[in-house]
Structure formats: structure tokens, C-alpha cells
Design brief:
There is one protein chain. The chain has 280 residues and is α/β, with parallel strands linked by helices. 43% of the residues lie in helices and 16% in strands. The strands form 4 sheets. The protein has a 4-stranded mixed sheet with strand order 5-6-8-10. Strands 1-2 form a two-stranded parallel ribbon.
């Protein structure tokens, strides 16, 4: 059977539910007489069941989670009987979740991950999730963020944790390559093109702005080891550039490289630098 949700999203959610279950168990051992933990268990079970019913095409997962008999034979000293029941019940259901997680690809086919990611999805830029767009309005004029390329490049390297920042030269495939970017809690090899005010002739970044011959995007995408391709600009990015990047990424994915790309325009650039204190 096919599921319309990407595998990575379902995996992340199940791991989150498992972590919550262990959290309930941990709370029980710290508060062995707190019968209010029953409500925590019921709320957790309800959310997990609702997720299964809304995500999976059959009742297999929700039925397995709800109806598998609980192993309630374990005893814990100085623990109220109702708290003990919660511990045993949650422990059984956590094991069920781990089993479901381990067998996802055995039973289902999943929608492929999208080629594109936003800055909010990149763990190395996680602080942007707390920034309101109004916070950066003073720094952006009609999509234009007026900061020189070198400053932005050094800031990005520091935020990512990359100590080596190469100098620009005419034949480069990218402006910065790093293996320290975090995406989905994993380090991924990343190629980044930076575009400051001096490289962009109009109000939007176009293919002709990318390298002396307008071919830097193609040259960057020729690096087969990269898993995340980033195009940064201090201005808005023209749709033709986005379409080209999407097509190049799809070609690489069809050849087996499950890469992704991220477009960071002027507003996104300002958001990142604001979130990490470079504009204060």
C-alpha cells in the first residue's frame, strides 16, 4: 500500500511519540504516587491513535497500538497501583511503536521526500524558527538585504560551524563547501553559492548572475557527493532559477543521489543573520 506522507515525516513523528512515552515513564518513577499521570497516558494514547487513523490507510497500526495486551506483571516498590498500571501500559505501547517503526517499509510505499527544504527545516539554522517576519522588516527593502557577500559568507560559515572559508576564484563550483551542516539531525555535505549586491544587476537573481558565464549553478550541481545544495542571494530569486535548480536536483535524485536544495533569498538571509545575532 502507498502512503501520501514521506517516510521521514512518519519516522520523525513516531520517534517523537516514543520519546513522549519514555517521558511519561520517567515522570512515573519520579512521582510514584501521582495518580494524575493516568490523564497524561490517556492524552498520549489519544494523540497517537488519532495520528495512525489520519495517516495510515488501514486500522492495522491503530488496532495494534490500542488492542495489544499489556504486560502488567512487573512490580515497582513504593508506587501507587494506578501509576504502576500506567508504567506497564506505556512500556508495552512504546514497544509496539518501536515495532511499527521498524516495519514501515515492509508494509508500505511512501511519497518521496521533496527536493526543496526551507531554512526552518535545516537544523543548523534552527534559531530562525523563533523569528517573526516583523523583526527583520527594518533590514530588508522590497526583498533586498544590503549586506556584502563576504560578510554573509563568513557569518554562514560561523553559524554552521565551518572554520575553513575559501577565497573566491573564477573557476569555483561553489563558494563554500562544508560537511558540518545539520539536516534532520545528521551532518550532510553541503555546497553553497553566495550572491551579494555586486553580482546582481536587477531586482532579482537570474541565471546570468550566477558566475561569469551564468553557469555556476550547473557547476555546483555537478558535485555528486553533495546532499544539500544552497543558493543564497541578497535579493529575490527569479522563478527561472528555481525551476532550473529543481530540474537539476530531480536529475540527480533519478541517478540515486537523494539530494535536496534550499533557496535563501534576501529576506531569508536577513532572518538567519538576525536569529544568530549578526544584525544586533
Amino acid at each position: 500500500m502507498r502512503i501520501s506522507t514521506p517516510l521521514v515525516d512518519i519516522t520523525d513523528q513516531l520517534i517523537s511519540f516514543i520519546s513522549e512515552g519514555f517521558g511519561i515513564i520517567g515522570y512515573a518513577f519520579e512521582n510514584r504516587l501521582d495518580q494524575g499521570i493516568v490523564n497524561m497516558q490517556q492524552e498520549w494514547i489519544a494523540r497517537v491513535t488519532e495520528y495512525f487513523d489520519s495517516t495510515f490507510p488501514t486500522k492495522k497500526e491503530s488496532g495494534q497500538f490500542e488492542c495489544t495486551p499489556v504486560n502488567d506483571g512487573l512490580f515497582y516498590n513504593n508506587m501507587h497501583a494506578s501509576v504502576k498500571t500506567v508504567v506497564n501500559g506505556v512500556n508495552t505501547k512504546v514497544q509496539i511503536l518501536e515495532s511499527i517503526l521498524g516495519n514501515l517499509e515492509r508494509y508500505y510505499q511512501f511519497e518521496p521526500e521533496t527536493c526543496s527544504v526551507d531554512i526552518q527545516h535545516i537544523d543548523s539554522f534552527e534559531k530562525v524558527r523563533g523569528v517573526n517576519h516583523r523583526d527583520i522588516e527594518p533590514y530588508v527593502n522590497n526583498g533586498f538585504f544590503n549586506r556584502d557577500e563576504g560578510t554573509i559568507k563568513r557569518a554562514f560559515a560561523e553559524i554552521i560551524g565551518e572554520s575553513f572559508v575559501p577565497k573566491d576564484w573564477g573557476g569555483e563550483t561553489e563558494d563554500l563547501f562544508t560537511s558540518r551542516t545539520l539536516l534532520n539531525a545528521q551532518r550532510v555535505s553541503t555546497s553553497i553559492i553566495f550572491n551579494g549586491p555586486g553580482k546582481i544587476k536587477s531586482s532579482q537573481t537570474r541565471l546570468s548572475d550566477l558566475g561569469k558565464r551564468g553557469d555556476q549553478l550547473v557547476r555546483m550541481m555537478s558535485i555528486d557527493t553533495t546532499k544539500l545544495y544552497i543558493l543564497q542571494s541578497v535579493k529575490r530569486v527569479h522563478p527561472d532559477v528555481i525551476k532550473t535548480l529543481e530540474a537539476l536536483a530531480e536529475q540527480k535524485r533519478n541517478r540515486g543521489n537523494r539530494c535536496q536544495y534550499c533557496i535563501i533569498d534576501g529576506q531569508d538571509t536577513a532572518t538567519i543573520l538576525y536569529a544568530y545575532g549578526y544584525l544586533n
